[in-house]
Amino acid sequence: AAASPLCAQSTGTPADNLSRYLRELASNPKSLGALLGAGEAALGAGDGNAALGFYARADEISPRNGRVKLGLGRSALMLENSRDALRYLDQATDLGVAEAEVAGDRGLAYDLRGDPKRAQR
Fold first, then answer.
1. Cα–Cα distance for residue pair 13/93, rounded to 1 Å
2. 68 — phi, psi (to 5°)?
């Protein structure tokens, strides 16, 4: 399988990367790689709403993609929506994303819910 932008090393600032992915999306609006990259760049720039939009578009194209669900979970987490974040993170692991990769995000989501024991676990 090809490496997704969530796994790839990014070069430049999140804003530079976002601009690059937006140019790609202008010529190919259904590019899953560009949507994933734009979502990751938006998260890096601290824009959870933009990230959520990119990942939602990616989810329409590839609804059984664990990387997309991970991005949706991280976006929801950035927006402090722990309920949705946990749901998406569970879907990501169900679709093959390693538990170790989502553990920190899941812990933060439980912490936001006021459940420190589950967050620590």
1. 29
2. -65, -45
The pTM score is 0.88
Report the distance separating Cα 95 and Cα 29, nearest Å.
24
Provide the residue type at 114 as one letter: G
> Which residues are within 8 A (CB) of 1 and not within 5 positions of it... i.e. 6 or more apart?
none
- Residue 64 tokens read as 């059984």
DSSP conformational letter for 43: H
Residues 104-113: pLDDT tens digits? 999 999 999 9
Answer yes or no: are the C-beta atoms of 58 and 71 closer than 8 Å: yes
Condensed to tens digits (0 to 9), the pLDDT of residues 18-73 reads 999 999 999 999 999 999 999 999 999 999 999 999 999 999 999 999 999 999 99
